[in-house]
Known about the structure:
By secondary structure, the chain is α+β, with helices and mostly antiparallel strands. It is built from three helices and seven strands; from the N terminus they run E-H-E-E-E-E-E-E-H-H. The protein has two domains: about 1-125, no CATH class; about 135-170, no CATH class. The protein binds zinc ion (2 copies).
Amino acid sequence: MRYKTLAQLQRPHERIVCEIDHPAPAGTGVDLRGNTVGRVELTNTGKTIVARGNIAGQGVLTCSRCLREFPWVFDVSFVEHCALRQIDDPAVYATGEDEEDPIPIVDDELVDLTELIRQMIALEVPFQPLCRPDCRGLCQKCGAVLDEEQCRCGADATDPRWAKLGELLEE
Ligand SMILES: [Zn+2]
Ligand SMILES: [Zn+2]
């Protein structure tokens, strides 16, 4: 995700467009498959660099309830403040408290969008992934995947909170 457009972008009021079709960056917290595709427009406003873009891709997540893997797709639009600073400069990430820290997009003499794309994908990853919204998860006793198989411990495994509801439904 490196582009030979740094000199141009350093000039105030310049705008460049980066087409993206690259393997996903590492460190997003998710198992990504195939390329991340999209388009990012970088504008030097004279004061800062604004990145406006859209990226899409796919990967595999693990359901937080049943622990099965399931396919995940993302398609995200964003507007972010960036800075013409080296992405491997630790000082850029030092504060950790300010969410508004601009994202560095320079690697040596090249514009490098790896860190920007990594952060945009990482923000999209659900905190508690679910294979489907009402995934029934695992049986607390026998570990059966309840969406997939008959629980091996039968009625005994019924959560007492639901037992009452079961009685009502049977009436
Ligand atoms: Zn699940
Ligand atoms: Zn069970």
